[in-house]
Amino acid sequence: MRTVSTALFHSVDGVVESPHLWQLDAFDDELGAAMNAALAEIDTVLLGRVTYEQWASYWPDNDTDDFGAFINPVDKLVASRTLQGDLAWKNSRLIDGDLVESVSALKRTEGGTISVCGSISVVRQLLFAGVLDSLMLMTHPVVAGSGRHLFEPGDPLTRLALVDVYRTSAGNVVSTYARRGS
């Protein structure tokens, strides 16, 4: 059975939206190495519509760095209620039907890790439905001040187990959680 994971940049005050605006000097070599190790396990990426549209306008022409070399050839599944038809970005296709049902079925197939990249809404849906197996938060030593949070008031009680934690030389704290009991 395949696993579904995500890794999100996270500020001390809980912001996960637009990390390029606040992570700046805290992205260090250790964090880059951890990300590259995680990418080596992934063979399918899940994206929401917004992330897909942002990335599809940039990455297809930028494959010279490690992430570009990874994201362009990998299979990309896009969760969207508004996009239709064939998607222009190589190896991208729309999820047909319900997100949770589709990803649950995909987990039962052979293959590597399925990773949700960005796409806060997709992460939330899969986490609260019990489909997300691994949640990595890379907390940068910064207060972002504004932006979307992963967790919101009124979210359902969800118990997690800390499976790994370490600190990088720039002061990032990388915490990996699994659903308790999984």
Brief overview:
Helices cover 24% and strands 27% of the residues.
Describe this structure in words.
The structure is a single chain. This protein has a single domain, classed as Dihydrofolate Reductase, subunit A. The protein is globular. A hairpin with a 5-residue loop joins strand 7 and strand 8. With 182 residues, the chain is of the alpha/beta class. It has an 8-stranded mixed beta sheet, with helices on both faces. It contains 5 helices and 8 strands.
Topology, pairings included?
Blueprint lengths: L3 E8 L17 H11 L2 E7 H8 L9 H6 L3 E5 L12 E3 L4 H9 L5 E4 L3 H9 L5 E7 L19 E8 L5 E7 L3
Quick one: how many beta strands? 8
Radius of gyration: 16 Å
Oligomerization state of this entry? single chain
State the CATH superfamily name: Dihydrofolate Reductase, subunit A
Overall mean pLDDT score?
93
Strand order of the largest sheet: 4-3-2-5-1-6-8-7
Q: Which architecture name does CATH use? A: 3-Layer(aba) Sandwich
Beta-strand level of the residues, as a percent range? 25-35%
Question: What structural keywords apply?
Answer:
27% strand, eight-stranded mixed β-sheet, alpha/beta, globular, Dihydrofolate Reductase, subunit A, single chain, 5 helices, 182 residues
